Amino acid sequence: MRSSVLAVAVLASPVWAVQPDEVLDDPVLEQRARDLSQELRCLVCRNESIDESNADLARDLRILLRERLVAGDSDEAAIAFIVDRYGEYVLLRPTTGGANWILWAAGPLMLLLAGGVGIGYLRGRAAAPQTQESALSDAEQERLRQILDE
């Protein structure tokens, strides 16, 4: 019994991040706010959305987002307002436009570059002339026998 209560408490903890005084009266606006706040990064917790975070800054961002929605902003306008104020880092899924396309393309480009270097190395190694190991000279064989006899 205790373990099931503990499991429910742990699994439901992100739900507790939004305080009752933050919840909007209009359920449609509240759902929009919850959906949008799951796309915004908590600047304190890093890889946690403001919807899940208990940090004070996340609370401030949730309130700011709700204020923008109550003021009549569209989803895009509310997100743009927060991005203008806090930078693009606040987005959990950054845009692919502008200078960010370099970051998005860097992974696949580095994979192709590494593959090309690997293929070039293997082809060069296969094309290298095979060296024959020469047999030991008579003097070397005699010295080897002396070492082994000792």
Throw out a few tags for this protein.
150 residues, mainly alpha, Helicase, Ruva Protein, domain 3, 2 domains, 6 helices, 59% helix, CcmH/CycL/NrfF/Ccl2_sf, heme
Summarize the structure.
This protein has 150 residues and is mainly alpha-helical.
Commentary on this structure:
Possible subunit of a heme lyase. The chain crosses the membrane at residues 101-122. Residues 6-148 form the CcmH/CycL/Ccl2/NrfF N-terminal domain. The protein has two domains: 10-90, Cytochrome C biogenesis protein (Helicase, Ruva Protein, domain 3, Orthogonal Bundle), CATH 1.10.8; 96-122. Helices cover 59% and strands 0% of the residues. It has helices spanning 2-11, 27-37, 56-70, 75-86, 100-127, 138-149. Residues 9-14 have low confidence and may be disordered.
Provide the residue-averaged pLDDT: 83
- Approximately what portion of the residues adopt beta-strand conformation? under 5%
Unreliable segments of 5+ consecutive residues: 9-14
Q: Please estimate the helix content.
A: 55-70%
- Radius of gyration over all CA atoms, rounded: 32 Å
CATH superfamily of the largest domain: Cytochrome C biogenesis protein
CATH class (first level) name of the largest domain:
Mainly Alpha
- Major sheet summary line: none
Secondary-structure element series: HHHHHH
